[in-house]
Specification:
The protein is built from 12 helices and 12 strands. By secondary structure, the chain is an alpha+beta fold.
Length: 390
Amino acid sequence: MKPVAEEFRQRFGESPRFTVRAPGRVNLIGEHTDYNDGFVLPMAIDRATWIALRPRDDQRVMLHSLNHDETVEFSAGALLKGGKHWGEYPKGVAWALREAGYKLCGWEGVTTCDVPMGAGLSSSASYELAVARAFQAVSGFTWDPPAIARLCQRAENQWVGINCGIMDQMISACGKPGHALLIDCRTLVTTPVRLPSETVVVVLDTRTRRGLVDSAYNERRAQCEAAAKALGVKALRDVSVEEFEARAAELDAATRRRARHVVTENARTLEAAHTSEAAALGRLMDASHCSLRDDFEVTTRELNVMVESARTTEGCHGARMTGAGFGGCAVALVRADAAAKFSETTRARYYEQTRLTPWIDVSCASEGAALVQRLRAMRRVRHAGEINSE
């Protein structure tokens, strides 16, 4: 928060009126299930997008990104699509909010993000939720986390052009400190889930990157939809493991593999949310990775090497790729007292086989998108009931 506020003061000659924060996430289990109306178990991490801002008296938005060293400017009342550019994300959020009937005020600010971009930790969702929180701060509409998450997903689907599910936006909006969150992606019902005692979550960045728009993500989604249609259900979430096994022969080989992953992954995720044993959760994470590697075919050599490096290191209960795949990160459940040695050993083992230096981070579960700072005068206004905030 400090750098973004300092940069704001340097640019605008005063302190920001508001500072907002929205976290990235790591998914413990439940991969490629969200767009199948299934179950996921992500955790909001302690890395986030920050925006320091002040309101304007018109509908213009001016946002400077410290990550890109670039400023975008647009009117929330007259939005036009551009090309592939980070500035399309705030425009998309403005579009989705406006389409839903929200009256938007303009603002100007500075943003920075310490979620590694392209790593499968949902830097884009954290950015979308931070922008939505900024609009809420200056416009005064009610902050409804699930509803805003849906609108941010719509922005990414229909404005940016990435056909993502709802998980990333939901956990960035609704994250709970100290907990993962079981999300029913059909109903958006969330259930806080404590991690097994004396464990930590370790994020393992392979330092390889993928672009979802140009990847096989949309192809996998289409295959899942085809499987659901062939099985006569709304989504693969509606198929039990037993029902799938009885009817698997009705699907072609590739579609059958994709569907098997989703059906079994939903079962693993529900089991994971109801276990308090580290070893049991670790085994489910291991099985998830094997399914993503063999049935859904979204891992890479680097992801497989990272997971194997983690699994064979003392203190690791289980590990798997996390995110959409085709590069990015893995995640491991590790004994808390072994985390430092685990990180050092896994880093060395991965480097030995790939000659890539990974980024490894012991992560804490954090709060969802929030307004973290406002001027004292604005607090008095809120308490007097003159704006409708969180």
